[in-house]
């Protein structure tokens, strides 16, 4: 190879780099700027499209550069995309052939109506189609009740998916308004997985109105947000064997702890109230034993693939959770 490489005996360094850059498979190409800033976390697609390196170092595109000049209003008329610059923007990547997306769209339409009734004109939803043809798109658009990217602009789906690492549909991304005085700034990405917020809401669309613009939750059901345990440090309370009242108290304690936590690192607080395939695998991996009472664990996969186990069947309160975060005990390696 005409470039430097790490010798085989430095496998520990490779493991730490993989955790740092969230490697999900090989080959995986990360492009860094001169100061170590990540320019592109997964540049394989760019290299394959640019084998001569004419566009090196493959700096990422901006959302504002990818969006078309116009979007479709709910009534089918076109409007300038620039008219949305001062609004929150929810992009909904979905398709008619996707059963979860088919179920999500009517619910989104309800949420949209409630938001319109409760808020000023400071937001818009746009459907980003992965439909196979115009007829499929038209069938979805007829029941949206909100805006969409025109079907003839569907080639941007792949570019936006590449930019924001969209791996499945439906995926919802929430963006803030553009900077009012700096046109060079892109829209800020507020949440790349709004679907998690919707999964956590088990009541009615009205509840979601009060949580808008749906920034990432710092707490939740482990079985609904399981992907996050690979990306950030998290506290998990396994309480599958606890009764309903005990589980509700645990959820309240973790919500309160997430609000009270003021540490310097990103930290999430999850509960596992149901015995699922995921919880069984984690129990076995973490050597927790059978479901008996509440069991608190601190997992830190991103930095050093380690975990910490709290005292079994301790009373879960905001104080005990935060104390455990501050003094989790001896670290154990996941692998």
From TrEMBL:
GO terms for molecular function: thioredoxin-disulfide reductase (NADPH) activity. Coiled coil: none annotated. GO terms for cellular component: nucleus. Residues 86-178 form the Thioredoxin-like fold domain. It holds the Pfam family Thioredoxin_8. InterPro entries: Thioredoxin-like_fold, Thioredoxin-like_sf. GO terms for biological process: negative regulation of protein ubiquitination; negative regulation of Wnt signaling pathway. PANTHER family: NUCLEOREDOXIN (PTHR46472:SF1). This is Thioredoxin-like fold domain-containing protein. It comes from Amphora coffeiformis.
């Amino acid at each position: 190879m005409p470039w430097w490489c790490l010798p085989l005996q430095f496998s520990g360094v490779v493991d730490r780099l993989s955790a740092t850059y969230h490697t999900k498979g090989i080959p995986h190409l990360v492009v860094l700027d001169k100061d170590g800033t990540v320019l592109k976390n997964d540049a394989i697609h760019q290299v394959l499209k640019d084998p001569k390196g004419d566009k090196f170092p493959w700096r990422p595109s901006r959302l504002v550069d990818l969006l078309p000049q116009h979007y479709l209003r709910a009534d089918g008329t076109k409007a300038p995309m620039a008219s949305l610059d001062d609004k929150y923007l929810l992009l909904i990547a979905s398709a008619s052939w996707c059963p979860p997306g088919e179920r999500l769209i009517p619910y989104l339409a309800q949420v949209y109506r409630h938001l319109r009734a409760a808020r000023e004109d400071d937001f818009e939803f746009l459907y980003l189609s992965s439909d196979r043809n115009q007829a499929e798109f038209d069938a979805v658009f007829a029941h949206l009740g909100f805006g969409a990217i025109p079907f003839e602009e569907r080639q941007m789906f792949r570019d936006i998916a590449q930019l924001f690492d969209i791996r499945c549909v439906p995926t919802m991304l929430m963006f803030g308004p553009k900077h009012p005085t700096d046109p060079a700034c892109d829209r800020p990405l507020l949440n790349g997985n709004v679907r998690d917020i919707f999964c956590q809401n088990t009541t009615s669309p009205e509840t979601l109105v009060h949580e808008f613009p749906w920034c990432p939750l710092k707490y939740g059901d482990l079985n609904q947000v399981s992907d996050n345990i690979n990306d950030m440090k998290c506290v998990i309370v396994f309480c599958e064997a606890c009764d309903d009242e005990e589980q509700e108290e645990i959820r309240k304690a973790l919500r309160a702890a997430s609000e009270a936590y003021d540490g310097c690192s990103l930290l999430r607080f999850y509960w596992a109230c149901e015995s699922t395939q995921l919880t069984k695998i984690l129990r076995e991996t973490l050597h927790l034993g059978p479901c008996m009472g509440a069991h608190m664990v601190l997992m830190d996969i991103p930095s050093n693939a380690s975990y910490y186990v709290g005292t079994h069947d301790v009373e879960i309160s905001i104080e005990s959770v935060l104390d455990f975060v501050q003094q989790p005990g001896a670290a154990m390696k996941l692998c």
